[in-house]
Design goal:
By secondary structure, this protein is mostly helical. The protein has helices at about 5-20, 25, 35-55, 60-75, 75-85, 90-115. It has one domain. The chain contains 6 helices and no strands. Helix 1 runs antiparallel to helix 3. The relative contact order is 0.16. The model has no long low-confidence stretch (mean pLDDT about 95).
């Protein structure tokens, strides 16, 4: 499978999940953001779906890859919030929360790689 297909699939899956099961995503929204968490959950889900579409289409793939990298960087504060909120959770939950933090780096690089390989 081509890298851009996998990236578009990942973004589509997570984007749909923001709408299908929004509650877990609501809990990740930093309190410092204005408005309600559900609004941010839906906005980020819509952004993921839009970026997935851009990555999937050859004419917008470069922009989509750059947008994916930016999106992955932008959600880092939510992952930090999760790590802080779950610092007293079970070891398995802490491992998930802490594991998401360094995972953002390869995700950003993946978006950049898709952008640079676009024709």
């Amino acid at each position: 499978m081509r890298s851009f297909h996998a990236l578009a699939g990942l973004l589509t899956t997570t984007g749909v999940l923001h709408f299908a099961t929004p509650r877990p995503f609501d809990a990740l929204v930093p309190r410092s953001l204005p408005g309600g968490p559900r609004t941010w959950t839906y906005l980020s889900g819509a952004a993921e779906l839009a970026v997935a579409a851009a990555v999937a289409h050859p004419r917008t793939r470069r922009l989509g890859g750059l947008a994916a990298a930016g999106l992955f960087a932008a959600v880092f504060p939510a992952n930090v919030k999760m790590a802080v909120d779950w610092r007293h959770a079970s070891p398995a939950r802490r491992a998930v929360a802490y594991g998401r933090l360094p995972l953002q780096v390869p995700l950003v690089l993946w978006g950049l790689r898709v952008a640079s390989s676009a024709k």
